[in-house]
Amino acid sequence: xxxxxxxxxxxxxxxxxxxxxxxxxxxxxxxxxxxxxxxxxxxxxxxxxxxxxxxxxxxxxxxxxxxxxxxxxxxxxxxxxxxxxxxxxxxxxxxxxxxxxxxxxxxxxxxxxx
Length: 114
Known about the structure:
Elements: H1 17-31, E1 36-40, H2 55-65, E2 69-73, H3 82-93, E3 97-100, H4 103-112
Parallel strand pairs: 1-2, 2-3
């Protein structure tokens, strides 16, 4: 797996977030020629972690629909929401979208993903 070192655009800085996720997925796939990306959690904004906003599900769906595997890295242990913890658990059981504590762990998960 080739690493791309240039910074990816922050999803939270674009409007609306699902369109920004689609833009990132297309950049990864068509400009970089890759099928996997690691995303710093800080680039997603707090709405991502509030499942009732629907942002997390819409972003995840963009990556799945366009066959780009993604791993979001950053600390999640301080979140107490059971639905969010369940969402993270279920995502980590799949093959397309993962959550990891660190960038290194995210890259490892992506490298092992089939």
